[in-house]
Amino acid sequence: xxxxxxxxxxxxxxxxxxxxxxxxxxxxxxxxxxxxxxxxxxxxxxxxxxxxxxxxxxxxxxxxxxxxxxxxxxxxxxxxxxxxxxxxxxxxxxxxxxxxxxxxxxxxxxxxxxxxxxxxxxxxxxxxxxxxxxxxxxxxxxxxxxxxxxxxxxxxxxxxxxxxxxxxxxxxxxxxxxxxxxxxxxxxxxxxxxxxxxxxxxxxxxxxxxxxxxxxxxxxxxxxxxxxxxxxxxxxxxxxxxxxxxxxxxxxxxxxxxxxxxxxxxxxxxxxxxxxxxxxxxxxxxx
Length: 287
Ligand SMILES: NC(=O)C1=CN([C@@H]2O[C@H](COP(=O)(O)OP(=O)(O)OC[C@H]3O[C@@H](n4cnc5c(N)ncnc54)[C@H](OP(=O)(O)O)[C@@H]3O)[C@@H](O)[C@H]2O)C=CC1
Ligand SMILES: Nc1nc(=O)c2c([nH]1)NC[C@@H]1CN(c3ccc(C(=O)N[C@@H](CCC(=O)O)C(=O)O)cc3)C=[N+]21
Fold this sequence. Notes:
Layout: E1 4-5, H1 8-24, E2 31-37, H2 41-56, E3 60-66, H3 72-84, E4 90-93, H4 103-108, H5 121-129, H6 137-148, E5 157-161, H7 168-177, E6 181-185, H8 192-196, E7 201-204, E8 222-225, E9 229-232, E10 238-241, E11 254-255, H9 262-281
Parallel strand pairs: 1-11, 2-3, 2-4, 5-6, 5-7, 7-8, 8-11
Antiparallel strand pairs: 9-10
Helix pairs in contact: 1-6, 1-9, 2-9, 6-7, 6-9
């Protein structure tokens, strides 16, 4: 058997279309503020992509590029200013941050109604309480991708490998809200393969290239590969690969590609979160 490819592009286009439609129905254009600290090449490229796609979807977007050595009070002052500005609807601080800027302090300083990353403790709590709010884009994007391809979650066994605040934890919370039976594995999990073989739906966000091999996957399972690694191929050509070994395609029923799987969903979902935040701030929805 060869796994069906769960391509991100068509599912992301559907989300972008929804973001564009809902943005056009508002009296003002939703405005996303992207904050980047330093010159990390991956962050530069991701923020540029988010900024471009926001404009393409009919949103306003502003990039704030801060120096690597920006002091914490200066960053917090910018977040205070944007939190109070009625013309700013969404705020994202790109990760990773330099070591002198603690992510928890930064995340708590964004108005939770503008927290399009879903990292503020109030939004984290709402997600786990099953209440409406803003949730992290990658986790929402993974659920939207599975829904787009008709992959059922209710009553199924879901295993998440990884427990980071950006992917593993929130995707586990959303899977639970979708009535899956959820297991979260991490570095202290003994015999990872025994746990992952139990999964009808396997979400891999460990940040370890090719961690999941074919023997660790239940035949027919739906496998979502969140990992992104820049490797140098033969001849020195750079290429992207994920946390899932290519051999898994021979066992799984469905598999997301890297690139072109979860990544595009993350960006599309960020724009949808920005529109949702703007709707709520303009009194157009309950969230
Ligand atoms: N496509 C997208 O939109 C996105 C992709 N990514 C990619 O996803 C990957 C994960 O990112 P992120 O969640 O931020 O990573 P982190 O490094 O923050 O977290 C990795 C998690 O995986 C666990 N882990 C690591 N190795 C193993 C192992 N051998 N067995 C079991 N568990 C393991 C860690 O366990 P422990 O907690 O015990 O240390 C940790 O919980 C990266 O490759 C990243 O680039 C990330 C965000 C968005
Ligand atoms: N505050 C914050 N929020 C985030 O959501 C956040 C972050 N910081 N820091 C970094 C991670 C990573 N992330 C990705 C987004 C898009 C792709 C993406 O579009 N990937 C494409 C292309 C990948 C490439 O060319 O690098 C793909 O997989 O096809 C990947 C990864 C969001 N993150």
